[in-house]
Amino acid sequence: MEKSTIADTSRNNTLLIAAMATLFICLSPFLQDIGDIPSGLLRITTASSQLLSDYFHIGGPGAALINSAVILLMELLVIHLTGAMLTGTLMAGLFTTAGFAFFGTNPLNSLPIITGVALYACASGIPCKDLLMQAFLATAIAPIVSFIPFGTGLPLLPGLLCGIVAGILIGFVFPMLSSRFLTFHQGYSLYNSGFTAGILAMVVVSILRLFHVQVTNINLLYGDHTAELTVMMAVLFLLLIGVGIYRMNWRVKGYVQLLQSTGRLPSDYVTQFGEGIAIFNMGVMGLIGLAYVRLMGGPVNGPVMGGLMTLCGFGAFGNHPRNSIPILIGVTLVQVLSPADAHSTGGMLSALFGTTLAPIAGSFGAPAGILAGVINAAVAANLLQGHGGINLYNNGFAGGFVAGVLVPLLESRHELQQQRRSHGK
Q1: What is the full DSSP assignment across 368-380?
Q2: How does DSSP classify residue 363?
Q3: How many angstroms separate the first and last alpha carbons of the chain?
Q4: Is residue 313 within 8 Å of 50, Cβ to Cβ?
């Protein structure tokens, strides 16, 4: 893609994200009394925020939508100030962080993490724009910034100071660890930041527990306005499909080529296939996720909407129907055959975020993807206690381990098959 085209694409995508933030703000008074929104935002900001802290429940749906809009606008400002180009990489990051702003991140706990990454960029001489994806997705561990002042019993000001310092330090080391951990799963888990955040969270939580600070996951979930939220998400995804078709001059072209890609990191569909087809795929992935949730009888609350936004966002950076549906099938098999509640919020998150392993299906075929989904669902269910909900990307954490173990086995099997074929000739 030529430089001028990248600049035009970035400008168009900026307008799209700004329009989505504006939509969230405009819809907020229809879901919550406008007079209750400021106090709702305060409750969101002062929540301890570990999994599962549904901001729709804590602050109200209107406040949660505005919190997400503020996160988006804040990140757009950072992108503008650093001169970064808003292609598929950052589109995935923005949609993901917008989704997690429904259940765990807010400006107070996100800014120290982003600041820490920026300080690392300055110290290492790396342009800040080259680390924005890591900076935004590093907010997976943002709950630690909220938990220290609001969940440990510390006095407010010392707690805030400790939380902010912890966030900056975590942000500073995050890029160093993230680049190293990528080699562990070889790019077969899309949520590399979730794996990094999981390791960091386990270390931090272990230190806190050493001093008898109990860090446990919570379960505050919203149960109202299901129909309205379903319609809102459906309209958003349909609009993305429409925008994608419009940017392709009303012709869907190149989608077959996109579906043939493995999705293995890094797979920036905007630069590889064009902005129109990438945005079209984002809308398609969002609708697939929403259809799955409703067919399974799952709830539509803050965490589930976060999962849908993430699946949609990574439709520009690795996910597509061909490599993602096998993962959904694998997770569903586990839920149907085990005592787990397949209709619960946890069940929906296991399926939606389990698509972090889509590159395995894209590279080794649907059966391998189904197997990856089965294993990831089992592993993710047993990792949550280790980090106490401090890492919001729990399935990304599990996905790193699953890919790290499964991919070498699949590669060995592939090599053996090739050797047999060569000997048989």
Answers
A1: HHHHHHHHHHHHH
A2: H
A3: 42
A4: no
